[in-house]
């Protein structure tokens, strides 16, 4: 009889710290990709970065589904909620909040490299050089730099995800198309970021 009562007490505990701790490794994987804690080799980055994000999201989904199942079971048995139930969502929400507030490393690197980027862009436009070649490194950032028909200089960031074409556009000596630039974000005078 005592074993039955002890078993019932164990099952009546709300899902708390354990679920919050279970979410941490998956959140750390997402943070590692977002903040460049590690570098993948160049050809493998497409597969490995996507796999890392996929594993992290799958893990968070499993932890979240188990948390919902256990929380619902606890509520059905006890007909009340405990503050411990909110620990796991609090950890996930806090991490998402940090992701929004803390800038990615490339944002700070762009501010440091912007002067040299402007010099290169002005030089390319004056010499009518359509592109710099396969890879240009400025202050630790790797770019593919080219000029399009609108005469704007595009700095495609090779360090960001290779799947997405992301980087910055220098517009000091060009006439940007307002329809095209409506989806880009202004990050500094004469500079737009593209996704």
Assess the beta-strand content as a share of residues: 5-15%
Largest sheet: 6 strands, antiparallel
User: Which oligomerization state do the chains in this entry correspond to?
Assistant: single chain
Supply Rg: 24 Å
Helix and strand run? HHHHHEEEEHEE
What does this entry look like structurally?
- The chain is built from 6 helices and 6 strands; from the N terminus they run αααααββββαββ.
- It has helices spanning 2-11, 17-34, 45-78, 87-101, 105-127, 178-181, and strands at residues 136-138, 141-147, 153-157, 167-170, 185-188, 191-194.
- A 6-stranded antiparallel β-sheet has the order 1-2-3-4-6-5.
- The longest helix is centred in the first third of the chain and has 34 residues, at 45-78.
- The chain is elongated and about 75 Å long.
- The model has no long low-confidence stretch (mean pLDDT 82).
